[in-house]
């Protein structure tokens, strides 16, 4: 299944290609300067994506496919940013391109990438009007910055944009919190609602309910043994469980109705050394109740049984630390 991050990467690459020609034909930038902007972004993207191998080399050696599904997180972003700064500085000096000229061209392209990011983010939270409002602001700033000629005004635009993003994000967070408090008595699968309870048999042959984990944070994960990103995700979940299992429960619901047989599930679990319980959704009733379309899909549930977030695509160890422990 294609996950959100992959869609963002594809969209970014397509937009990079379009921005290249936008810079050359609309902004009248020299091709050599657009090469610097284009190459710095592409190389930075590759470094960010492959940095997972630097942060977790053992996991990559054990399963090289993890490079497809995970990234180096904050460390990867820092490495990519440092590379882009030094790469850009070196090539501006080498090509004798003035910094002011570079800023004039790079600023609207920067806002263009923000448009892509916010549209991608908004697709995951269509009800959050503040994300869409930020996207509209990014479009306006993109248009305005394309017509500005002075570096000082572009810097002012850059700072103003980030102040607005911070304000809108803060208002969005406060609105979500208020909505969650209002919806906390409702049972449903939306953020802020109480996760619907269910009972399933585990791979070990015992009955288990979601509600028995009240008092703990829960990662409710839907997966299948034949799903490549699920296979990459499971060792990450096991590592997280070994570290934080006393405080966070992992409820892994296998889509057994889509498996060949129980043996395929058991073989995979034993092969990966998974020690948390695996629940078997043999009729597909639970995955249907939670409207699971793409796997893996995970719901982060708090100690009171309230859904705090939903994630489509594989979760890495670092993502689980960041999202689960901060909820």
Task: Provide a brief overview of the structure.
The protein is an alpha/beta fold. The chain has 13 helices and seven strands.
What does this structure look like?
- It is built from 13 helices and seven strands.
- With 327 residues, the protein is an alpha/beta fold.
- It folds into two domains: 4-181, no CATH class; 199-324, Glutaredoxin (3-Layer(aba) Sandwich).
- Strand 3, helix 10 (228-244) and strand 4 form a beta-alpha-beta unit.
- Helix 1 (4-25) runs antiparallel to helix 7, helix 2 (31-50) runs antiparallel to helix 6 (73-94) and helix 8 (129-147) runs antiparallel to helix 9 (151-183).
- It is elongated and about 70 Å long.
- It starts with a helix and ends with a helix.
Classify the beta-strand content into a percent band: 5-15%
What's the total count of β strands? 7
Give the overall form: elongated
C-alpha termini separation: 27 Å
For the largest beta-sheet, the strand count, sense and barrel status come to: 7 strands, mixed
**Count of separate DSSP helical elements:** 13
Radius of gyration: 23 Å
Query: Secondary-structure element order, as H and E?
Result: HHHHHHHHHEEEHEHEHEEH
If you average the pLDDT, what whole number results?
86
Look at the helices and sheets and give the structural class.
Answer: alpha/beta
Low-confidence stretches: none
How many domains make up the coordinates?
Answer: 2
């Amino acid at each position: 299944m294609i996950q959100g991050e992959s869609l963002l990467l594809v969209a970014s690459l397509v937009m990079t290609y379009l921005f290249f020609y936008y810079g050359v034909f609309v902004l009248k930038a020299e091709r050599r300067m657009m090469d610097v902007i284009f190459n710095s972004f592409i190389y930075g993207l590759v470094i960010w994506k492959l940095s997972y191998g630097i942060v977790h080399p053992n996991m990559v050696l054990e399963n090289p496919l993890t490079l497809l599904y995970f990234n180096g997180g904050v460390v990867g972003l820092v490495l990519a940013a440092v590379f882009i700064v030094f790469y850009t500085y070196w090539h501006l000096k080498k090509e004798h391109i003035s910094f002011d000229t570079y800023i004039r061209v790079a600023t609207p392209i920067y806002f263009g990438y923000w448009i892509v990011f916010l549209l991608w983010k908004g697709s995951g939270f269509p009800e959050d009007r503040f994300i869409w409002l930020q996207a509209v602001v990014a479009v306006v700033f993109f248009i305005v910055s394309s017509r500005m000629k002075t570096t000082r005004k572009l810097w002012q635009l850059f700072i103003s944009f980030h102040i607005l993003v911070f304000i809108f994000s803060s208002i969005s967070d406060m609105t979500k919190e208020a909505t969650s408090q209002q919806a906390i008595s409702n049972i449903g699968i939306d953020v802020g609602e109480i996760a619907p309870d269910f009972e399933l048999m585990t791979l070990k042959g015992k009955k288990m309910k979601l509600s028995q984990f009240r008092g703990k944070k829960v990662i409710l994960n839907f997966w299948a043994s034949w799903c490549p990103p699920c296979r990459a995700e499971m060792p990450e979940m096991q590592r997280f469980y070994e570290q934080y299992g006393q405080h966070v429960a992992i409820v892994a619901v296998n889509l057994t109705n889509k498996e060949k047989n129980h043996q395929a599930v058991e073989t995979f679990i034993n092969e990966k050394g998974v020690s948390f319980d695996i629940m078997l959704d043999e009729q597909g009733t639970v995955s249907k109740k939670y409207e699971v379309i793409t796997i893996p899909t995970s719901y982060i549930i708090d100690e009171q049984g309230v859904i705090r977030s939903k994630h489509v695509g594989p979760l890495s160890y670092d993502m689980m630390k960041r999202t689960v422990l901060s909820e």
